[in-house]
Specification:
The structure is a homodimer of 152-residue chains. With 152 residues, chain A is α+β, with helices and mostly antiparallel strands. Chain A has 6 helices and 5 strands; from the N terminus they run H-H-H-H-E-E-E-E-H-E-H. Chain A binds a DNA duplex (25 and 25 nucleotides) through helix 2 and helix 4.
Amino acid sequence: MQMTEQQHSVERIFRDYLEQHGHRKTPERFAILSEVYAHEGHFDIERLYGRMKKKNYQVSRATLYNTMDLLIECDLVRKHRFNDTQSWFERAHAYRQHDHVICDVCGNVAEFCDPRIQQIRNNVSEALGFRVRSHALHIHGTCAACQAKREN
Amino acid sequence: MQMTEQQHSVERIFRDYLEQHGHRKTPERFAILSEVYAHEGHFDIERLYGRMKKKNYQVSRATLYNTMDLLIECDLVRKHRFNDTQSWFERAHAYRQHDHVICDVCGNVAEFCDPRIQQIRNNVSEALGFRVRSHALHIHGTCAACQAKREN
DNA sequence: GTTTATGCAAAGGCTTTGCATTTCA
DNA sequence: TGAAATGCAAAGCCTTTGCATAAAC
């Protein structure tokens, strides 16, 4: 399998993280990392499980959950809870910070960026002495397509 | 039971909503609304269930879930998903818009306000033709108290 | 050789659902 | 009286856990 520059880079980050924390460098963990970085967009555990199964690299759901925790710890993955019950994930390294717009009619999730969010983070940090690690801004409503459909 | 001005107000909103949508005005629904507005802060279904039981006004969990959906529909309640599995709720009427700062160490949730979030909402609305209904901004990290503890 | 990770299946927790009973309109 | 809401218990779904097996170190 040909690896991109980026894949090498995230693999190194993960490897360093595992070593520094006394975790083992198992093939499953790197296979999962690779699969996560092979796609853009959001996924849940079930979808990731299906993808790996299809590629004949099946790992247990338990291992997927465990590995997600590790990847979140070292900031290679972000975890989201939108409206539904399950957790959604996305790769996080080298992707500029962004937030999410969720259509409550069709369930579609879009992304957007706004620099003001960084200012808000700084404010909270200063005002409360809070050490900010991450944030999630979810804007809910109805997307343009669903508005149009509804009017017909 | 003495009712505040506000309780009358939210009850009227709920009553109107139920009538306009052909839902029945059951005593359970109004008892739940009243209990929700009797406390500030966040609560989950189990806590609400416990409170009502203690006051000898027990309703089933199923009815609590159903009624929460109605109250969310008419903007009298907001629902949140923080980090844990269950949903958290809070009363929403006549309380100024605010967002949440979550300490991932102790789990404590604080509130803050920032007018820039409204500007971001407007931007998204204009840029994407998205009809914004609500938003949730969660800032995660470590609170001042937990930082202090950790340093000792 | 130890100790940690994996995989499987079972258990857990929150939420939804089905159905009989009650109650609002 | 008829349709909708309630309550209870069971089922569902996602996630975590326990334990035997396998594999890093």
